[in-house]
Amino acid sequence: MTTNESVVGSGALSTGVVITGGASGIGLATARALAQAGRPVALWDINQAKAVSEAARIADEFGCAAVGVGVDLSDPSLYAAALRTTRSALTDIGGLVHAAGVVDTGSLDGVTVDVWDLGINTHLRPLILLIKELLPDFEANPGSAIVGIASINATLGNAVNPVYSAAKGGMLSMVRSLADRLGPAGIRINCVSPGQILTPMLQPTVDALPAGAFERRILLGRLGHPDEVARAVRFLLSAEASYITAAELVVDGGNISSQRM
Ligand SMILES: NC(=O)c1ccc[n+]([C@@H]2O[C@H](COP(=O)([O-])OP(=O)(O)OC[C@H]3O[C@@H](n4cnc5c(N)ncnc54)[C@H](O)[C@@H]3O)[C@@H](O)[C@H]2O)c1
């Protein structure tokens, strides 16, 4: 059987990508990695000032279109305005990365309705609502693809963050369902599950634990860098990943698979 180049693609895609949580950590590293490959980017973040300044830095450094958009993703009534700003700044939108996140640290004892709502409405609900909003853009642009940033906590049991773990586990199964819905249109959707990546989210935990607490378990013996996750996301959004959908790509330096004590 031969493959159809117009379907599988082999060249670089040049459509724009919306990156939630784009002002910091993994989202920012992803926006930079995509811009470096020539893809216009929209950095959506609750921290509007940082989204705007990082987008300006990206446009300056890589010479591509980049826009920073202030939006609280837990409030869907704000999406329409953010989409208007994005569509007027980027010619075409052919990608979405949902990296915005918060983490609960209070275990079962700290769970309240507000903690539950914040976790689910930051990690899980925006992914499906944004895909629904962006579907016409994706359908109009061959090669469109989506990446949800899940976590190894979707699989590992950690007493500290039950809401976070539920949201990330939900993301894995929701992505498989959406892959079925989107597949006939040629739109791919996957998850990337990072392990411990040194970002502003993880830093306080690293500081609070004895030195080497995480590293001891990880087969590569070190924490990850946001760029190492960003490159995996960029791959999944590219034509190089044309036959990959409904998958979880674990980027954890060998953590889930470790039996080290
Ligand atoms: N760092 C890790 O070790 C690690 C591991 C596994 C998964 N992750 C996931 O990676 C993603 C990125 O995390 P990170 O480590 O880069 O953290 P980070 O704190 O550096 O970045 C998260 C970004 O999300 C933004 N954000 C939070 N709530 C928002 C909201 N309601 N609306 C819009 N923006 C919002 C923050 O302002 C911030 O810029 C998260 O989904 C996180 O769960 C991180």
UniProtKB/TrEMBL annotation:
Pfam families named among the record's database cross-references: adh_short_C2
Gene3D superfamilies listed in its UniProt record: NAD(P)-binding Rossmann-like Domain
Keywords: Oxidoreductase
InterPro entries hit by this protein: NAD(P)-bd_dom_sf, Sc_DH/Rdtase_CS, SDR_DHRS6-like, SDR_fam
Keyword presence, Transmembrane: no
PROSITE patterns, A to Z: ADH_SHORT (PS00061)
Keyword Oxidoreductase recorded: yes
Coiled-coil region: none
GO MF annotations in UniProt: oxidoreductase activity
Family, as annotated: Belongs to the short-chain dehydrogenases/reductases (SDR) family.
Protein name as annotated: NAD(P)-dependent dehydrogenase (Short-subunit alcohol dehydrogenase family)
Organism: Nocardia neocaledoniensis
